[in-house]
Design brief:
single chain; alpha+beta; four-stranded antiparallel beta sheet; three-stranded antiparallel beta sheet; 13 strands; 33% helix
Length: 409
């Protein structure tokens, strides 16, 4: 209902809305006529409302909560209109409504202090000296005094409708090749990119809906690693995804839906090497995925194991300012896999282990008694054998001994 009167309105909660009606005097008339029109519109919708028109937003909010019906306050008379109101009205307004940084606990403390001092009305609170009041309760209490005087603590923040970034096009002739489809995608993405730039937004997810001649709809969802609004990059990513997952029939309608996110802010420095943009990296990764498959490329990552040559692949990071992730604590990871508490583990044996890895394996002979090694010997020059005094394993050589069912040797 507030949107019917002015595009500048702010919803504080479900039952409290402030509207900027400063420009309606030439259209509807004086303030009383505007208030009566609001009540009449609410009654037509089956809603009972309290309306207050004042020179400041704070005075209108307090009068709306305190007095039923229609209240009109001339500009400049806000403090006088609020003076007879009971001071308990402060408890009915949250900190978010008045725009203060104080907590609800402080609001309850301040209200209790006002009652102990014998303050009964907002006029008595407004009449106190600000310096004396701040010295006793702190600077946050000045916001409550300003509210009692009808002063605005912050400007009105208009609410904007949730904008939907969607574009569709019905084709005169069905198309089945990617080349003519690229022109259609460009035509749809250009106005969407302009709207994203005006709103300082970027595409986080790109939804591509293709209606086929068989009356079926093919849906593709592209999660972008970074906010993108470049038309060429978005078009290339969509075409590469369709190349890897082609439609089953010709297309006669194309729809693009974008899930927006705040735009990316990039601050380059003078002393770092120039790196490719996230759009270029995203396009390169999409080409690799279409050529080799989405699970056959990535960045190498260390694996918590002692097995020679073991590694894993993780997705590439396209953000420029990405730091290195901290190394995984092997003992903590072992505890997590084994689901054991540290107090439940037995104390570690005092075994000093030494490991020497050679690129060319060195043949060795191990003498064992009752399944336990007792001596290691080798014929390679520079390597000395000897008796085995202590041993532990098999995790010292095979790795992943903490996993259930993992064998070792």
């Amino acid at each position: 209902m507030a949107q019917e009167f002015s595009p500048r309105f702010e919803r504080h909660r479900d039952d409290l809305v402030s509207v900027d009606v400063s420009g309606l005097s030439r259209l509807l008339g004086p303030a009383r006529t505007i208030g009566e029109e609001m009540r009449r519109e609410a009654a037509a919708r089956g809603v009972r409302v309290h309306v207050a028109v004042a020179g400041t937003r704070m005075a209108a909010l307090l009068l709306t909560i305190a007095r039923p019906g229609l209240t009109i306050v001339a500009p400049g008379d806000e403090a006088a209109a609020l003076a007879p109101l009971a001071i308990g009205i402060l408890e009915k307004i949250s900190c978010e409504d008045i725009g203060t940084q104080s907590s609800q606990d402080f609001a309850a403390f301040a209200s209790l202090a006002f009652k102990k001092w014998g303050l009964k009305t907002l006029g008595e609170l407004a009449a106190l000296l600000s310096a004396d009041l701040a010295s006793r309760l702190g600077r946050p209490v000045l916001a409550w005094q300003a509210m009692a005087r009808g002063e605005d603590l912050r400007p009105l923040v208009p609410m904007l409708e949730e904008e939907r970034f969607e574009s569709s096009l019905d084709l005169e002739w069905p198309i089945s090749d990617l080349e003519p489809l690229s022109f259609v995608l460009t035509r749809l993405l250009e106005p969407l990119s302009t709207r994203l730039e005006r709103r300082d937004r970027g595409a986080a997810v790109l939804h591509l809906l293709l209606r086929l001649v068989t009356k079926e709809t093919t849906k593709r969802r592209l999660e972008l690693p970074t906010p993108i609004r470049d038309v060429r990059a978005l078009r290339t990513l969509a075409l590469l995804d369709l190349e890897a997952h082609p439609a089953e029939a010709a297309i006669d309608r194309v729809t693009i839906v974008i899930d927006p996110t705040p735009g990316r802010v990039v601050q380059h420095t003078l002393y770092t090497r120039t790196q490719p943009t996230p759009e270029q990296l995203s396009t390169l990764l999409a080409r690799l995925g279409a050529l080799m498959g989405p699970d056959r490329f990535g960045a190498p990552a260390a694996v918590d194991t002692e097995r020679p040559g073991a590694f894993a692949m993780v997705p590439f990071k396209t953000d420029v300012a990405q730091g290195f992730s901290p190394a995984i604590d092997r003992k903590a990871e072992a505890l997590r896999h084994a689901r054991l508490e540290p107090s439940a583990l037995s104390p570690e044996p005092s075994v000093v282990s030494a490991l020497r890895r050679c690129r060319q394996p060195v043949p060795a002979r191990v003498a064992a008694v009752d399944g336990r090694p007792v001596r290691v010997t080798t014929d390679r020059h520079g390597f000395a054998g000897g008796a085995v005094t202590q041993c532990a394993g098999p995790w010292r050589t095979s790795g992943e001994w903490w996993l259930e069912g993992a064998g070792g040797s």
